[in-house]
Amino acid sequence: MYLKDKYRIAVVAGDVIAEMDASRFRKLDVPTIPVNTGKECHLDAKLVEKALGEIDLDNTDLLIIENVGNLICPVDFKLGEHLRVVIVSVTEGDDIILKHPMIFKTSELAVINKVDIAHAVDVDSEKMRDDILSLNPEVPVILTSKHDWESLETWIGFIESGLEKRTK
Amino acid sequence: MYLKDKYRIAVVAGDVIAEMDASRFRKLDVPTIPVNTGKECHLDAKLVEKALGEIDLDNTDLLIIENVGNLICPVDFKLGEHLRVVIVSVTEGDDIILKHPMIFKTSELAVINKVDIAHAVDVDSEKMRDDILSLNPEVPVILTSKHDWESLETWIGFIESGLEKRTK
Fold it and tell me: Complex ipTM, two decimals?
């Protein structure tokens, strides 16, 4: 079951320039506001606030904010989110985590994606998990692949349980 | 032939934290100064100047400065380099270029790496080349793979011809 069949989702899609990610979300029929930061390497609360003016929040169950794709700059800027999720891919190399400790220390959920091609890029996804836990022992770590629906269900389930806690 | 067998190379290796890249260079017996930026997402000229104090420049033919791995922040900061090179990998996705136009517009050489696994990550490396040329029609674009020595020789040749121009 897709999340969007059960919840009313909206997306704020941050990028330095262009609307490639935003148009991917729109293809799924999800209301999406693209936010271009120009030269800035992160979203901030003011940019998000401005985007929220274009979203019907009273009819939104789940708001996803996709920050600029960058593991450094977003660390210091809270966006008012309930859950901070960091997603890395095995294709970024298995030293990507120890090179960017702060984002993993400040996230409440970590997703390691594209684990199906870990071998092709000569990366050990278990080392990546261990590195995250060495920085943040309490954080849940989920390994996902778009070719493994079960792994995506774990990820979806995590969001769902967060939503249910909030609406009780 | 390796560059280091022909030229005296030194490296300034920038990273937010840690010395993983620096220790890779050192394994090759190349004098390397690691520079940690802390929370900053780019090197600047002052950080480079400080590192240069630890390098025997009179006995260096080629100085390589590796910036923090980030396609946004380094754009605006000249480091005194003779040649600005941007390296992306196919594993970053074939929309990575149009999402980060400024770094490709301001670089004098572009390298697309890991082209041997383009198929595994469902990426068209020729599209990536076309995207770079659409932003910067004059820039040389080299496609490389560590498994294809010939492709690396093109890259090495480019550096060599630059060095020879400068020492004439």
Answer: 0.83
